[in-house]
Design brief:
single chain, 111 residues, mainly alpha, 3 helices
């Protein structure tokens, strides 16, 4: 989220006043993020096709935008050699599964 006075608009959602969505970058933000249970409830209502207010839709939109930005930032933070690391991790997983199959076969043979 940009700092106060930034070029981007900032939305505020407070547990004290759910109508406190604002575009004012200098607005006092008590709780910038709704509680996870509140978001889950909004997502469930949206999925069920319930009518949501413009403010509730804005909260869901802001949450989705935050998730997209976090995903994008996570990709940019990958190490330069991540394909090699991914391949090594996949090989380690295959070896682990082969070992588990051998252990299971030995246990079945012993029984």
């Amino acid at each position: 989220m940009p700092e106060a006075g930034g070029a981007h608009r900032r939305r505020a959602f407070t547990t004290y006043d759910p109508d406190a969505l604002t575009d004012d970058p200098d607005a006092a933000v008590i709780d910038a993020d709704p509680a996870p249970a509140d978001l889950d409830a909004l997502r469930a209502r949206y999925a069920d096709g319930d009518a949501l207010t413009d403010r509730e839709l804005a909260v869901l939109e802001a949450d989705h935008a935050d998730a997209v930005i976090a995903d994008r930032d996570a990709v940019h933070m990958l190490p330069a050699d991540w394909p090699r690391q991914r391949a090594a991790l996949a090989e380690a997983g295959r070896r682990l599964m082969r070992g588990a199959r051998h252990v299971r076969a030995a246990a079945e043979h012993a029984a």
